[in-house]
Each structure stands twice: as C-alpha cells, then as structure tokens.
Amino acid sequence: MLPSALLQVCPLGTPLDVPLVGVPTTPAVPIPAGTQKQPAWKTGLHRGRAMVTVAVTETVRSMQYGNQSRQDLWDVYGTVTCKCEVEGVLPNVTVTLSLPPNGSPLQDILVHPCVTSLDSSILTSSSVDNLDGSAFSGPYKFPFSPPLEPFRLCSYTSQVPVPPILGAYQLKEEDNQLRLTASLKLHETVKNNFEYCEAHLPLFNRNQMGGADVKVSFGQVDVSKEKNLLVWALGQKFPKSREVSLEAKINFSGQSPGPCDPLCTGLTAYIKLHFKVPDMTLSGCSVDQHSVQVYSSSKPRIATSRELLCKEYYIWNSTGAAPVSGAQMTT
C-alpha cells in the first residue's frame, strides 16, 4: 500500500529515506536506453519542420527639456524572445548575444527559468553600479531547453551615451496665437533607415484650432483641427544633414473646446516621437544565426532579427514648465 500511496502523493519524484521493513518490493520497469522523460511543464512535443527564431528588441525612452536647469534623461532596455520548433523531449539550444568591441556591457540581466546554466559574471552587472573596465562585456551564452510556445529568453538594460534623436521645442504666445518652432537631429551613430518615424505635437486645454500655418524643412504635416494635433511624418529617412525643422503659427478660433489634459496647462507642451528602426540596437547587441547551436535529431532553420523601438519619448517645450523625473529613468 505504501508504494502506491507515495506514487499518488509524489508523482513527479522519488521519495528518500523510506522505511523498507515489511514493505514488499515492486519490480522496476526498465527504461529503454536513449529515451528521456518528458517534464511536467512541457505539455507536448513538436512535430514537423524544425525552426528556431531569435529576436532582439531594444526600447528607448527619453525626457528632453532643452533647459540647462533640468537634466535630459534616457534609458534603454532590451528583450530577447525565442520560438523553438524543435523535435525531441528535451532538445538543447544555446543562444549567444554579442556586442561590438566598444559596446557598453549589458546590465540587470534576467533569464527565463528554462536556462540550464549561466556564467555568474553575467548576473553581477547592475545599472546602479559604476561601470569600469572589469565589467563583463560578453559574449553572453544562454543554454536552455525551450518550451513549445514563444517565450522571453532574457531581458537587460544598457547605458548609451546619447539618445538616438535629439530635439528642441519652443512654444510662445504672440498676438492671440501660438508660435511653434521645433527641430530634430538624428545622431550619427543611428542607422538612417526607419520603418516609420513621426512626431506628434498635441495642444491641450484650448478651443479647437481655427487656422494653422505650418512649414517644415522635411516631411509632411497632417493638421487635425478637431484634435488640436499636428502629426509630422518624417517617413523612412532623415535628409542627408540628419536635421529637420518645423515652424507653425496657430490660432484657436474654433467654437468648440479641444482636448483637455490637466498636466499641459499654459505653455506646458510636448512633442512625442514614434519610431522604429529595423536591424539595429543602440547597445549594438545582436545574435549571429551561425552562433545559435541546436542539439536535436533534425537540423533546424535558424532566423535572427533585431530592432529598435521608442516608448515614452518626449521633448518638452523649453519655454514652459515640464514634469521632472528623478536622476535616472527606471524600466
């Protein structure tokens, strides 16, 4: 009775220190050589064409004030996602992240529980510490036995010296109208090849726009009078100079009130950027498809990619009040 009761209570393990006196032994079932027991967390097996996909996505945030009394802020965090369609109960895969020779070390690394082993130096680098020459700078190897569904292999942060796009924004009240000037500059280290790039200039707590005279050095502007919004579409490339500018004069003679925001009163206003750069990361982090190792019964096709996205990327009007975060943005 005791063996069957233990099997009910502990179905996934082998109990130790079990009293043997008076307990009849049961014949062991031989396990065929070369077979592996499927773990309880893996609900099925892959059947079909083998494929391993690894994607590195970095996201940059920024708060730029254009004012010497307030420090501009930015941070970068990355994720590595995988989808492994590989045959076998416990196939082994190793993904290696690499940095360029002058790249900043990855920090604050967190890994998925399926990672089987890890160099301790990978986990000791933290963004709250001062970087020095002894910081581990890769390559970063992650051996793991993958689940069936897509999953996040790891996440990290990286300290980069400058944000990818520097901006300036000035908004002033003149003759019962608003005068706007804005400029954007793409940093020389950033790949000038966007999937999309837009600058949104909302104007809150006023009547709806009556007239808008807008001039840009590059791109196109869509004026939404109902939303009190200028959408500056820059397309897929900055000009050769990597600098663009906008000037506008706007009056708010509409009869209906426009959108409200309790934060953006008076001259408190911002530009919010939206962009995506394929085949690039600010840290330089990448995965070479030839460095992905798969130990399985079949040879899989391997695909790798990387991209840079922005989130909460604000350029505040330098002539008005603006919210100020702490000394460092947090993820």
From TrEMBL:
| SUPFAM superfamilies found in the cross-reference section | Second domain of Mu2 adaptin subunit (ap50) of ap2 adaptor
- Membrane topology recorded in Swiss-Prot or TrEMBL: Peripheral membrane protein
Residue ranges of the MHD domain?
Answer: 49-316
Q: Name one Pfam family in it.
A: Adap_comp_sub
Q: Which UniProt keywords apply?
A: Cytoplasm, Endosome, Lysosome, Membrane, Protein transport, Transport
Compartment(s): Cytoplasm, Cytosol; Late endosome membrane; Lysosome membrane
Question: Could you say which protein family the record assigns here?
Answer: Belongs to the adaptor complexes medium subunit family.
Q: What is this protein called?
A: AP-5 complex subunit mu-1
| Source organism per UniProt | Nothobranchius kadleci
Gene name per UniProt: AP5M1
